[in-house]
Amino acid sequence: MPRAVRAYDRKEIEFTRVLAFSDGVFAIAMTLLVVGIGIPTVREAQLGDALRDLEPEIVSFFISFIVIGNYWLAHHRFFSQLARITSPLMLLNLGYLAAIAFVPFPTALVGKYTESPITVIIYAITLSFASLLETVMFMVACRSGSTRVPVPRDVARYGVIASLLPVLVFIVSIPIALASATWALLSWLLVFPAERVLERRKPSGTDKAFL
Amino acid sequence: MPRAVRAYDRKEIEFTRVLAFSDGVFAIAMTLLVVGIGIPTVREAQLGDALRDLEPEIVSFFISFIVIGNYWLAHHRFFSQLARITSPLMLLNLGYLAAIAFVPFPTALVGKYTESPITVIIYAITLSFASLLETVMFMVACRSGSTRVPVPRDVARYGVIASLLPVLVFIVSIPIALASATWALLSWLLVFPAERVLERRKPSGTDKAFL
Amino acid sequence: MPRAVRAYDRKEIEFTRVLAFSDGVFAIAMTLLVVGIGIPTVREAQLGDALRDLEPEIVSFFISFIVIGNYWLAHHRFFSQLARITSPLMLLNLGYLAAIAFVPFPTALVGKYTESPITVIIYAITLSFASLLETVMFMVACRSGSTRVPVPRDVARYGVIASLLPVLVFIVSIPIALASATWALLSWLLVFPAERVLERRKPSGTDKAFL
Amino acid sequence: MPRAVRAYDRKEIEFTRVLAFSDGVFAIAMTLLVVGIGIPTVREAQLGDALRDLEPEIVSFFISFIVIGNYWLAHHRFFSQLARITSPLMLLNLGYLAAIAFVPFPTALVGKYTESPITVIIYAITLSFASLLETVMFMVACRSGSTRVPVPRDVARYGVIASLLPVLVFIVSIPIALASATWALLSWLLVFPAERVLERRKPSGTDKAFL
To answer: Distance between CA atoms of C154 and C202, rounded to whole angstroms?
Structure first.
């Protein structure tokens, strides 16, 4: 759209509104996950067995709650450093939220088809897309000077690499999924040691900025 | 209702509350769409085929997310220019939100019956209704002097025409749907070039106002 | 609970939080209604007929949206006049929201069983309960001096009668439902002329207060 | 995460955002419960019987609404006493919300399998987990000095015991459930007299603090 870029200061209702709307999408996506766990229809005597069959769905509910919860924490941290929100950031945020709102679908799939590579791949692509848009939002915020404190170039570069790390892990997990779905899911845990390694190299002043 | 018109200033909690409520409806309508995508119940070997069958439902999830997201952006832009909200505006906003809350229904239909004209027509009517109420809200806000900056008459007229543009496109798509559902959906993209043409004629001072 | 009564001023986050939570329940109850409309599974050629069968469900979606929307407007009006919220009011508000959150159930029933008296009766009881708690909240707010402006005794009495009016109409509709479900639903429209009659008798100063 | 602890003051948007997000999860979990009540598909003549069969599901809707509503009140009370929110509290709050979001699942189970011990046990574990995290949040808030008023040591100890009380009741109900599901549910009511007994021993100054 060729419309003039609009910017809303952090003190305006319009800034808060973007957050309220985002939090709504996060809260619904996280709470909807529970609907994915089907209520079994069996005789009372067989309820124990039926619930044991639901175990993967229950586990995938909690895993996805943690996964989306982590994205929410990152979103909270990111916006806490913005001085204003611009219309391009709002557009990117909508795309990001589309990925978040989509997560209940691969979650339900992974819970139902535990051994299938395709479900893990769809999950990985969804989360890669969310992380990628997170990175783009970070870059746009730095370049347009929308942050509360100006972000030095080396901190910005570090931030982009740190945001891209999960994307990398998710993409690497795709070929692994073709061999074993379980190993692909477990490979996602590599994010944590990789983050630790990266953090040792972070430039000073990073803590005052986003990360 | 013959009750006296009430007005709530942008600084009052009551103004914010209308936005929080609206954002809730938007967020739920957008996130509920994912529930429309049914989880297939097949053997793991056939999951790939089953997911390919879900393609139109997944595509219609993302299209509707973009469609409602666009309405949210317009709603955000509109309210950002209001100095106060009056009870008639609140009533119109409720009607507008009814149309938004209804969107998941035609979305699910279009995703399931890709070749059917009726589903596209129901979709077009729903969105026309939302856009029409948007236009009425704009007119009421201008006339009752509820905007932050007074809107000159030519800018207001331009605004009404710009808001009615999608209504026109949706109505035109209804007879097209009778010939081909796919062409009708594609015809909605005409909004973008039409907006571009209209924008060249916009009176000066428009950017300071709503549009 | 024997705990000391707590009060939160309208400027505190705690006051806003009660509203944000209430608006969440309202927004979800209103948007969930659309899920009540089942997506038919038929051949494309028969989709027109299948959608015609859904007509009562679609109509009951819009009726319930209007009904809950009206309760939201009343809730908005009521809280706009409060100077502070006390813990008894918060408890009553929770009970009130339980009734609002329950509305999608009788809505779905009325949409599916158009000729059944029981569904209309369940609907009438649910709404009576909501209106009754509205009245109690009004009385508690007046008596505990939680309103922004002190409410004179005659205005308070008028307010209680006005809030009880829908309860009366809903209760009267229950025996009518036993004869005809449709007539019972139509009898709810009596609220509007009855409100008009009542309004002629309202004491001066009412507009400055709640109503 | 080795990141520096972040703290957001109660006046910052970031503090409000945690509450808005939490309220979203609460509102959705409470309103979703109604979806658990299936709409029967029978002939109109048999609707009365079908609805009578739904009685346990309707009762469990209202019980769970009250249960989650009580947790919401406690959450509201707890945060009303915080001067700032820190990142460890945000993490704990996410875990707490996972338990709240999970409640619709045991609720639907209890409504469907009224005589089954397993469903009551799952319910009790879910609520124990929520109450336990509540206790941990309370301890973390006291120790990190995040409360508005410093909490004296005896008041803090009393607070921890009071928060652990429901955990105790839920755990005790688990062996009871193996004998009778109904008695286990009823044993939960012991929380109220136990709270009363405990309250007589509360140290002075407790009311000014959390409880």
So the answer is: 9
Decide if A143 contacts A97 (C-beta within 8 A).
no
Q: Which residue has the tokens 């893990």?
A: A120
pTM value is 0.92
Contact predicate D116/A44, CB 8 Å: yes
Closest by CA position to D63, among listed D109, D126, D111: D111
Confidence (pLDDT) at A102: 94
Distance CA D137, CA D144 (A): 10
DSSP state of C40: P
Task: Give Cα B90 distance to the centre of its chain.
Answer: 17
Best residue in C94, C122, C123 to probe D by mutation, most D CBs within 10 Å? Answer: C94
Instruction: Name the 3-class secondary structure at A8.
Output: strand
Q: Are A211 and A158 in contact, with CB atoms under 8 Å apart?
A: yes
SS3 of residue D55 by DSSP: helix
Write down the residue that tokens 């005659």 correspond to.
C154
pLDDT at B1: 36
Distant-in-sequence, close-in-space partners of C66: CB < 8 Å, separation ≥ 6: B94, B98
How many other CB atoms sit within 10 Å of the CB of residue B179? 10
List, in sequence order, the alpha helices (H) in chain C: 13-32, 47-53, 55-80, 87-102, 104-112, 117-143, 153-179, 181-187, 191-200
C-alpha C83/C-alpha C77 separation (Å) is 13
Distance CA A210, CA A202 (A): 12
CB of C25 within 8 Å of a chain D CB? The answer is yes
Cα angle C151, C152, C155; round to 5: 85
- d(Cα B100, Cα B96) in Å, to the nearest integer? 7
Residue B99, min C-alpha distance to chain A (Å): 18
User: Which residues 36-65 of A are in CB contact (within 8 Å) with D?
Assistant: 37, 39, 41, 44, 47-48, 51, 58, 61-62, 65
Q: Residue B8, class by beta-carbon neighbours within 10 Å (0-12 exposed, 13-18 middle, 19+ buried)? A: buried
- Quote the distance between the C-alpha of residue C191 and its chain's center: 13
Residues C122 and D142: their CA atoms lie apart, in Å, by: 47
Q: What is the pLDDT of residue A1?
A: 36
Query: Which of C17, C34, C63 best probes binding to B when mutated, by most B CB atoms within 10 angstroms?
Result: C34
Contact C124, C173 (CB under 8 A): yes
Cβ–Cβ gap B118/C31 under 8 Å: no
CB-CB contact of D188 with D116 (8 Å): no
pLDDT on residue D112: 82
Nearest partner of C197 among C150, C164, C165, C157, judged by Cα: C165
Considering CB atoms only, which of C14, C21, C91 is closest to D26? C21
Q: Which residues of C touch B12 (CB under 8 A)?
A: 80
Q: Which chains contact A through at least 3 pairs of Cβ atoms less than 8 Å apart?
A: B, D
ipTM of the complex: 0.88
Q: Which residues of chain A have pLDDT under 70?
A: 1-4, 205-211
